[in-house]
Amino acid sequence: MLRKYSIPEPVAGGFACATIVGGLYYAFGIQIEFNLDVRDILLLYFFAGIGLKADIVTLLKGGKPLLILLVLSRIFIFLQNFMGSVLRLCLV
């Protein structure tokens, strides 16, 4: 069923884990905490691995849709940082 609807296994596993942890919390008041100390370094490895897979030939094949995606990404990154800065200044 996961392959039929193109749902990645990590997404299904994360949803199942969230459902179980949420169910335990709401049914029995059991609070489960995860150790996130290594999360940041693993995220760096993950995104570096994705970036290392990209080469100039693959990027050039992306064409106009990739250029649009890059432009929109830049705009939203700027807006996110701008709004975060404005909200921080307003709340201080």
Approximately how much beta-strand content do the residues carry? under 5%
Biggest sheet features? none
How far is the N terminus from the C terminus?
Answer: 50 Å
- Number of contiguous helices: 3
C-alpha Rg (nearest Å): 20 Å
How much helical structure, as a percent, in the residues? Answer: over 70%
Mean pLDDT level: 87
Secondary-structure content class: mainly alpha
**What's the count of strands?**
0
Shape: extended
Poorly predicted parts: none
List SSEs in N-to-C order.
HHH
Number of domains: 2
Structure write-up:
This protein folds into 2 domains: 1-54, no CATH class; 55-91. The mean pLDDT is 87. The chain is extended, with a radius of gyration of 20 Å. The chain is an all-alpha fold and 92 residues long. The chain has helices at 9-28, 39-53, 56-91.
Primary descriptors:
92 residues; extended
Give a brief description.
GO terms for molecular function: glutamate:sodium symporter activity. This is Cation/H+ exchanger domain-containing protein. The chain has helices at residues 9-28, 39-53, 56-91.
